[in-house]
């Protein structure tokens, strides 16, 4: 069993069943019935929320255990999500969508992370949106979630460079108290990006 499978192999949901606070606050920027890709979606809390809002959602995660729990959550909520088992590196990023959502994807070091951001950007159709939410480097000192590696975290400088030429709708670095299951709980150092791809 992989490390991620072992983490998710429990009755409760590691990060809860409610969407990330960022997504709950900002999903309104998506147009009605958008085609959305939720990357590294885990146990489905974010993709299920988006489907409940009426979007056409595809979600993937590398952990079959997490994806099975996501399917159960979607069934419980009465929504349909196209769940697939795949890793970040294996996903076909040439399939364009109206929006790509990436929430707390902090398991990649700088070279792989930079490639992931470029892949995500490629998957957004012209005029579409990128919604990214994760930890700032000081999160390592807070110890309330995420890996203990500062280099895996996001900075606003790094994200501004990765999405240079896009219309930046939100780019913020801030602290907040979050309660998202046992995986993310307490004071957290957060970074948000919402950007529109040039049409």
Automatic annotation (TrEMBL):
Pfam families, per the entry: Methyltransf_25
Gene Ontology MF terms: methyltransferase activity
Record GO biological process: methylation
Annotated keywords: Methyltransferase, Transferase
Annotated Methyltransferase domain residues: 36-128
Alphabetical list of InterPro entries matching this protein: Methyltransf_25, SAM-dependent_MTases_sf
CDD domains, per database record: AdoMet_MTases
Domain of life: Bacteria
Protein name from the UniProt record: Class I SAM-dependent methyltransferase
Organism of this sequence: [Roseibacterium] beibuensis
């Amino acid at each position: 069993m992989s490390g991620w499978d072992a983490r998710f192999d429990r009755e409760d949901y590691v990060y809860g069943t409610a969407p990330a606070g960022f997504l709950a606050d900002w999903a309104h920027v998506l147009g009605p019935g958008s085609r959305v890709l939720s990357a590294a979606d885990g146990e489905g809390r974010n993709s299920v929320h988006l489907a409940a809002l009426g979007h056409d959602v595809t979600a993937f995660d590398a952990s079959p255990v997490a994806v099975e729990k996501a399917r159960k959550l979607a069934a419980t909520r009465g929504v349909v999500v196209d769940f697939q088992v795949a890793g970040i590196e294996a996903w076909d990023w040439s399939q364009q969508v109206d929006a790509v959502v990436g929430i707390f994807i902090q398991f990649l070091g700088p070279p792989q992370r930079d490639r992931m951001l470029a892949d995500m950007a490629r998957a957004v159709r012209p005029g579409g949106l990128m919604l990214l939410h994760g930890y700032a480097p000081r999160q390592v000192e807070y110890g309330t979630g995420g890996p203990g590696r500062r280099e895996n975290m996001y900075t606003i400088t790094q994200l501004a460079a990765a999405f240079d030429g896009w219309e930046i709708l939100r780019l913020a670095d801030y602290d907040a108290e979050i309660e998202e299951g046992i995986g993310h709980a307490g004071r957290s150092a957060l970074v948000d990006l919402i950007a529109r791809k040039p049409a």
